[in-house]
Amino acid sequence: MDLGLQGKVIIVTGGAKGIGEAIARLVAAEGGVAVIAGRNEEDNNKTVNDIVKAGGKAVGIKAELSVVEDCQKVIAETVAQFGKIDGLVNNAGANDGVGLESGNPEKFMQSLQNNLSHYYNLAHYALPYLKSTRGNIVNIGSKVATTGQGNTSGYAASKGAINALTREWAVELLPHSVRVNTVIPAEVWTPLYETWINSLPDPKEKLASITAKIPFEKRMTTSEEIADTTVFLLSPRSSHTTGQILYVDGGYTHLDRSIS
Ligand code: NAP
Predict the structure, then answer these.
(1) Known Pfam families for this protein (predicted)?
(2) Which domain holds residue 88?
(3) Best CA proximity match to 126, nearest among 170, 90, 166
(4) In a mutational test of the pocket of ligand 1, which residue from 109, 184, 190, 245 has the highest number of ligand atoms less than 8 Å from its CB?
(5) How high is the mean pLDDT in each 10-residue block of the chain (260 residues)?
(6) Ligand 1 in contact with 59 (CB < 6 A)?
(7) Can you tell me the distance from the alpha carbon of 197 to that of 205, in angstroms, rounded to the nearest whole number?
(8) How far is the CA of 256 from the centre of ligand 1 (A)?
(9) Does any domain span residue 255?
(10) pLDDT tens for residues 46-67?
(11) 155 is catalytic
């Protein structure tokens, strides 16, 4: 299937690592230009170089996305270099463990800045360009918005808001033929996941107990599997799909837990 992404300019936040990296690589493999927006220049450059070596097109933009001006810069630099934006993948974020009891009002607000505000800010600043290309937005959410996890109020609130904004933006942007969808991962092995599991008392045992509960094939989802669905949604092959929240999670969020 030709996804029709040749020459499409797609911004991927957090595109240097993990899920974002897999999305950026696939965008480029499909002939698009991956614009990687992330805070660590070295990480950005490494992924850009790998993509270019493989024959793809990519650039990096250094941006701390919790800062509004950096979000503006990402859009301005993309347009200055390529003259258009065809897609925005809001992906950067981290489960930062700001709990009801363990956190405080300042940490909660900071968590919203790290996990939610830049999704809005980038969509806001990209909007004139997305309207002119009839482009689209894919947000990366989390199962936490549906299931809860405990001790992560800021992250859960952000991911819940992202689900709500998916429907809200899909409605607001109907007149402009700009589609908005969200992909929900549950358990995906990435640098972030590795750091989190290693912060627990018995990482090996915890990992085994999690994977045993993943209904489909008792294994983690790969970043590439998240990327496949995300890039399909970005593409014109999903031209009548909008306002959807898709769970790419091996059934983790919704299937019966009593199944063996
Ligand atoms: P990751 O391995 O940490 O990669 C995320 C990338 O985004 C990193 O390069 C990170 O930079 C960058 N980033 C994060 N916050 C940023 C900010 N404020 N400004 C600029 N760059 C920033 O994470 P991942 O596991 O791929 O997660 C990607 C998305 O999937 C997140 O939204 C996460 O909530 C969601 N998700 C993941 C899982 C999972 O199992 N992995 C499950 C559910 C949802 P640093 O390395 O400097 O932090």
Answers:
(1) adh_short_C2
(2) 9-186+222-247
(3) 90
(4) 190
(5) 98 98 98 99 98 98 98 99 99 97 98 98 99 98 98 98 99 99 98 92 96 96 98 98 98 87
(6) no
(7) 10
(8) 28
(9) no
(10) 999 999 999 999 999 999 999 9
(11) yes
58 & 164 share domain: yes
- Based on its alpha-carbon atoms, the radius of gyration of the chain, rounded to whole angstroms, reads 18
Task: Tell whether 113 is covered by a domain.
Answer: yes
Q: How many residues does the chain have?
A: 260
Closest CA to 19 of 85, 90, 122, 121: 90
| Predicted pLDDT at 258 | 81
> pLDDT per residue over 164-210, tens digit each?
999 999 999 999 999 999 999 999 999 999 998 999 999 999 999 99
Phi then psi dihedrals of residue 193, to 5 deg: -65, -40
> Position 231: which residue type?
V
Report which secondary-structure segment, H or E, holds 33.
strand 33-38
Q: Give the active site residue among 155, 193, 247, 252.
A: 155
| DSSP annotation string for 71-103 | HHHHHHHHHHHHS---EEEE---------TTT-
Question: In angstroms, what is the span from residue 259 Cα to ligand 1's centroid?
Answer: 31
The answer to whether residue 3 sits within a structural domain is no
Instruction: Specify the pLDDT at position 257.
Output: 79
Number of domains in the chain: 2
Regarding whether 20 and 146 lie in a shared domain, the answer is: yes
Same-domain status, 28 and 90: yes
Count the alpha carbons within 13 Å of 54 in the hemisphere toward its beta carbon: 17
Q: Are residues 140 and 193 in the same domain?
A: no
Q: What is the CATH number of the domain that holds 115?
A: 3.40.50.720
Instruction: Quote the pLDDT of residue 121.
Output: 99
Is this structure's pTM higher than 0.85? Answer: yes
238 lies in a domain?
A: yes
Task: Give the pLDDT score at 260.
Answer: 59
